[in-house]
Structures are given as C-alpha cells and as structure tokens.
Amino acid sequence: MQESDPERIGAQGDSPSLTVEQAIANLSHEDTSLRYYAAWWLGKFQVREPAAIEALIAALEDEADRTELGGYPLRRNAARALGKLGDVRATPGLIKCLDCSDFYVREAAAQSLGKLGDPSCIPVLEQLLSGGLAAAVPIPGRPHLAQPYEAVMEALGALGAKTAIPLIQPFLEHPVARVQYSATRAMYQLTQDPIYGERLVQALSGKDIQLRRVALSDLGAIGYLPAAEAIATSATENSFKLIALKGILEHQLNPEQAQSLNDAAIRVMTLMDSLL
C-alpha cells in the first residue's frame, strides 16, 4: 500500500460550513477529521486572525492525526494553510517541518515557505539539495523521491536565493522531467536568463499532456512573456492555458498604474480573450 498525498476523500467537500470561531475551536477538537477540515477551511478562506495563526502553528506539531504509514495529515493541511495566510510568524514552525518524517509535510512546508518570502529559511531549504543528484532517488515502495525537490527548488526561486544556483543547476539533468522543470523554473527566476524560459517553452511540445500542463504552470509562475503565443497554441485544455497566461499578465501589470496597460499586457489579454 502506498501513501498518497494526502487529502481525505470527501473530508472537505462534505463537511458543513463553519464560522471563524468554530474553525479555530475545532483545531483542538478530539475528532481528528474536524481538526483536519478546520485547518483547510482557515487557509481556504484566508482567516488571518492571531488566534487562527497560533492554532495552525501549534497544529504543525500534532501527534494525534496519523495514517497507517505514519503520515501526519493535520500537519500537512496546517502547513498549507499557513502559506496562504502570509504571516511570517509561521516561519520557524515550517522550518522545523522540513525535518519531519512525512514527505508530504516537508513538501507542504517548503511550498509555504516560498510563499511567505522570509529569507531566513533559505539555508535550511538549501540543505535539502546538498546531496545533489546522487541523493535524489526514489524511496522504495513510495511514489516520491527522498526529498520534495520540486517544492524546495521552486521555493528557493521564489525567495530569490542566488546562493542556491550551484545546488539547483545539477537538477536540470535529473531523470524525472517534473524535477527538471522545477529546476529550470528556479534557474530562470534566479538568473533571468531566457535560455531557461525557452527550455520550458520547448516542453510544451512534449508527448505527455500532464507534463505539458506542468510546463504551462511553470511558465505562468515565472511570467515568461515570450512564451505567451506558445502557451495559447499549446496542445492542452484552454483552462490551463488561461491560468498560465493570467500568471504572465500579472507580471506585466504595474500595481501603481492600474489604470494603464502596456503593450505586452494588452497582447496577453488579447490571447486570453481568444481562448474564452
């Protein structure tokens, strides 16, 4: 039996609506399914009240909610929620999660640290890459590698961790395409070298539609404008194309000049209109 990440089927969609007070209270409820749902709910609805942040940080050390294979579902949901809430008080707890035995907790923590933007986590994230390709191998009986390399590299890219460049670069040659794409995405963010953007554009011509979707997501995340036309004509669903183009558009818009659009933004919006 393989442990897959991580959502309990039906746990979120079938649960009743909550108030903020109920959700915070449920994080300490004896019913672990209510605790799990509350953590998701607080992140989904971006509840930034101090009591919610504190309760979610405490949930990062939960021991009660365990799977048969030793995973920590509540910790996973709490880590994801904290990334959505944007409070850097969560940074120490998320850093601690990078040492958790549960791969998916480490993955969720890395993703959230990348969103929080606190550079204090960079050395710990870099440490997870220190073994290089030799350590980046599958775990027997599990559907993942030794570490959540994709999430770690994407976080380092988002954090602008230029010191991580020599650690990320070898992963451009990793045998798993998704890992290659994450390395490529991070290298573009850290160097702004178009060679990396073009590598992701080339991936849009691959045979595997799942990988084409991943490349679309990465191009949107880095806001690589020269990819706009290739995205619009790629052999993927329009919904994925629109999400990627939206990411590119957001990189082109100047929040201080919201009333004006540059030529690049207009070009991307025109492509988006053609897909609707």
TrEMBL record:
Sorted UniProt keywords: Antenna complex, Phycobilisome
SMART domains recorded: EZ_HEAT
InterPro entries named in the record? ARM-like, ARM-type_fold, PBS_lyase_HEAT
UniProt-listed SUPFAM superfamilies: ARM repeat
Please indicate if the UniProt record lists Magnesium as a keyword. no
What is the designated name of this protein? HEAT repeat domain-containing protein
The organism named in the record is: Floridaenema aerugineum BLCC-F46
